[in-house]
Write a structure and sequence with these properties.
Elements: H1 7-20, H2 33-42, H3 48-61, H4 65-69, H5 73-80, H6 86-103, H7 112-115, H8 123-133, H9 143-152, H10 160-170, H11 176-189, H12 208-211
Helix pairs in contact: 2-8, 5-6, 9-11
Length: 215
């Protein structure tokens, strides 16, 4: 049985990360919840920076679900061709728009179950939409959150589902969204996959991997 961190340890980690990353927040650009869903879906297996380069023109072309649903797939592909898996992503966001129009009155649904019915929307994407779009406390476990939380010892899990459950258990509810962003920023800027910058890490004294000499 793994040893859970104490609430004092959790508080210390969050406090230090906030000091280090005061700008932590959603890095995707969007101007509506509909565009937020698209941006998050497009960000799978690519960077937010890459997504932000293509979405201004994409969003200008398709301001509403109706416009996107009516667009030819090849036209949509033209806007996102620089992204990985662009053909499949174009198919998904067009299918998403069609479902929003036909099943949800062109409104993005506000429930985990309904969001996951949309093409290209998994649990991580749904959590981001509920957090950013509807201001609910959520923890979306992407590759950074998974890696960092398990390295530090906030979680001890082999998959994203269990990692999310353990983070929800150990983190204060009112700080779920905040913690999600902080862990992402820490993963991008310091606790990188192949070569973490442990010497610069503000929380290394509470990091299990560092203390055990595993990084």
């Amino acid at each position: 049985m793994y040893k859970k961190k104490t609430q004092d340890q959790v508080s210390y980690i969050l406090t230090e990360l906030r000091k280090t990353y005061p700008d932590a927040g959603c890095a995707l650009d969007y101007d509506s919840i509909f565009h937020l869903v698209i941006a998050v879906a497009l960000s799978a297996q690519t960077t937010d920076v890459s997504v932000n380069k293509v979405t201004p023109a994409l969003f200008r072309a398709y301001e509403t679900p109706e416009q996107l649903a009516a667009a030819p797939p090849e036209e949509i592909e033209g806007y996102i061709r620089t992204l990985g898996l662009y053909k499949n992503k174009a198919k998904n966001i067009r299918g998403m728009a069609e479902m929003l129009v036909h099943d949800y009155g062109s409104e993005v649904p506000q429930s985990m179950e309904e969001l996951q019915k949309l093409p290209g929307v998994g649990r991580k994407t749904a959590n981001v939409v509920l957090s950013e779009g509807f201001h609910e406390q959520r923890i979306a476990v992407d590759t950074h959150v998974f890696r960092v939380s398990n390295r530090i010892g906030l979680a001890h899990a082999n998959d994203v589902g269990k990692t999310e459950e353990q983070l929800m258990d150990i983190l204060p509810y009112d700080h779920w969204t905040d913690a999600h962003h902080l862990l992402i920023f820490h993963g991008r800027r310091c606790c990188k996959a192949r070569k973490p910058s442990c010497e610069e890490c503000p929380i290394r004294q509470e990091c299990e991997a560092f203390l055990k000499g595993e990084v």
